[in-house]
From TrEMBL:
PANTHER family: ATP SYNTHASE F1 SUBUNIT EPSILON. GO terms for cellular component: mitochondrion. It is found in: Mitochondrion. It comes from the Eukaryota. This is ATPase inhibitor, mitochondrial. Forms an alpha-helical dimer with monomers associated via an antiparallel alpha-helical coiled coil, leaving each N-terminal inhibitory region accessible for interaction with an F1 catalytic domain. The inhibitory N-terminal region binds the alpha(ADP-bound)-beta(ADP-bound) (ATP5F1A-ATP5F1B) interface of F1-ATPase, and also contact the central gamma subunit (ATP5F1C). This dimeric state is favored by pH values below 7.0, and at higher values the dimers associate to form inactive homotetramer, where the inhibitory region is occluded, masking its inhibitory activity. Signal peptide: none annotated. Keywords: Coiled coil, Mitochondrion, Transit peptide. Its main location: mitochondrion.
Length: 123
């Protein structure tokens, strides 16, 4: 396998990963915009006051409604951080895998080149 094929393979993988990231980033940004929209009002203010219905506690409003809304926000923020950490780990694993693959392929190339040199020397 030539070095050009290895480079082509890695470029294809890079393009596929970029396409994957672009769609996920787009979803993430639209989610953030939706969550920070001013049309929601203050979460936990109760039904009909801009907070919307989110269960009986949130519909009642007051301190408990605000507390529940804050807990929900923290939950989703934690989930988002976990997902980002998992994505970072995944990318690092991919990078490590590709580095090992490049090493292996370079060894293969060296082995084939030495065979070619040996064949030329035997002529």
């Amino acid at each position: 396998m030539s070095l050009a094929l290895v480079v082509e393979f890695l470029n294809t993988r890079r393009k596929n990963m970029a396409r994957f990231l672009n769609t996920n980033i787009r979803k993430f940004v639209s989610f953030q915009i939706r969550m920070s929209s001013d049309q929601l009002g203050e979460l936990g203010k109760g039904a009909g006051k801009g907070g919307g219905g989110g269960g009986t506690v949130r519909e009642a409003g007051g301190a408990f409604g605000k507390k529940q809304a804050a807990e929900e926000e923290m939950y989703f923020k934690r989930k988002e951080q976990e997902q980002l950490a998992a994505l970072r780990r995944h990318h690092q694993e991919e990078i490590d895998h590709h580095k090992k693959e490049i090493e292996r392929l370079q060894q293969e190339i060296g082995r084939h080149e030495s065979k070619i040199k040996k064949l030329k020397h035997d002529d």
